[in-house]
Amino acid sequence: MLAVEAQGISKLYGSKAGVQDLSMEVKQGEVFGFIGPNGAGKSTTIRMMMQLLRPTEGSLHVLGEELNREKPELRRRIGYLPSEITLYPQMTGKQAIELTGKAYGLKPQQTPALEYAERLQWNPDQKIKSYSLGNRKKLGIILALLHRPELLILDEPTSGLDPLMQRELFNMLRELNQSEGMTVFFSTHVLSEVEKVCERVAFIKDGRLLRVNRLEELSLGGTHRVAVQFQSPGDARELYNLTMLDPAVQFDGVHHHLEASGTQLSALLVRLAELPLADLEIRRPTIEELFMNDYRAAEKEGETV
Amino acid sequence: MKTNLIFHELRQIRRGFLTCLGITLLFILLLLAKADAFVNNPEMESLLAGMPDGLLQTFGIAVDSFSTLEGYLASQVFPYLIVILSSFAAAWAGGSIAKEKDRGSGEYLFSLPYSRSNIFWSKAAAHWILMTLVFTAGSGLVLVLTFSSGQSVDTGNILTMLFAGYLLVLSFMGLGYMLTSWVSSDRTAVGAAAGMAVAAYFLNMLSGSSEWMERISYVSPYRLFDAAEIVRGGALTLAGCIVTLGLYVAGLVTGVQILKRRDIS
């Protein structure tokens, strides 16, 4: 059985499309990354999976059940963390846990809430209105995991969390996936997060699914983008023979932009070290660059995306 | 309906409830404490009798209503009491779903394993419980103050009048439910619902000012019951009961049906 199966789903808001003709499958027990820039349609897709929005077209199955009408019992099997979690400001974290626990027929002591609170260093006794974004996020994560769901849907779960807490969250996700076979649907716009936990990843942009890849299939391959500024201003591509290092080197008026991967990167750095540098930046390609490169490459090859 | 959700909603509007209860009891206390100054006061009656008929008609003041405590209750206490309670009732109902959407907590609430109709009915049950509590407390205070005034009154007639008010309040609550699932802004829903309650009161109050106002005031639910007639022994009109309860039920059904069909975003 598939955890999520979408066939040609679209969501229209008047004439504007939030999601267009999206088809994908998420297998049970996998950690699936759903990646795209802000406004790409990630949250819209997730809200359709949570029965908050109805698809305008297409069919959507979650945990084997078709979402053709409201199925509240299905939500017992799903844990959901919205991207911007908003709860009741006058409540304490503890009261929110009690309210959510009762919805699943659980008393707080029957849930792993306290264990997770400790791991995430979160205080349940404060009022929600006094929580920072990070603490609200921690509460949202605990609420989503309270009933040990079969399918965990996380929409931008790391925003607001400090790096230590992000690492703890990834550890928790790995543990739950390995020990309980929990399916994790992980939506983000940060590529490095997907690399840490996901097995497969779907790229979405402008409401359209661009492609779905296994992580190792992605052309990450250690590609780096290098921006160089030399001490003497102007285009130095010919002067320093930069086309030998990267035939596609670009000059934007200030910086020279090169791309290198694997052993090329070492050679490039060795060469640059010999030159009179004023500024140097080395970075991984952004998601946007990565999947637009893949998208263009696929278009050139005439592949069906 | 789920007790978890009913208690949750009761907690959410407890401040509104305490405010409503406080205002209602204070208002009753102030108006009835002053009743001796107005009721059966020949100077007051002659003062009113000397006022132009047009002015009295415009503001719906009947001179003979000041000759008995029941008349005073029907003409001075009842209308204001009902407009206060209707405004709160309409605001609670209007804000019930709209507030969840506006604040963003709807995404959490509607992701829980409760059906949308369960959430809606649980909220409506909580509002009904609180409004009934306020009404019971208010009615109790009216009766206590009436008895303590030493004047002879017909308790049955007063209770019938208060029950008519209760039905009116429910009808405005129904109007709030019609709006709440449809409107995404809490302020719009609450403002429009409470505004309708106040506007209906003014339509009724100004109905005597002209023929045109008289005609349009028929849309006001306040025209469904004649409080002055009821305290004199008149019964509740069948049409009044059907329309007020009909509005309440229609509001609930419309609200839940809209909520079941609309996206939560």
TrEMBL record, chain A:
Keywords: ATP-binding, Nucleotide-binding, Transport. It comes from the Bacteria. Belongs to the ABC transporter superfamily. InterPro entries: AAA+_ATPase, ABC_transporter-like_ATP-bd, ABC_transporter-like_CS, ABC_transporter_ATP-binding, P-loop_NTPase. Gene3D superfamilies: P-loop containing nucleotide triphosphate hydrolases (3.40.50.300). One of its GO terms (molecular function) is ATP binding. Pfam families: ABC_tran. Residues 4-231 form the ABC transporter domain. The keyword Transport applies. This is ABC transporter ATP-binding protein. SMART domains: AAA.
TrEMBL record, chain B:
It comes from the Bacteria. Keywords: Membrane, Transmembrane, Transmembrane helix. GO terms for molecular function: ABC-type transporter activity. The keyword Ribonucleoprotein does not apply. The chain crosses the membrane at residues 77-98, 125-146, 158-177, 189-210, 230-259. GO terms for cellular component: plasma membrane. This is ABC transporter permease subunit.
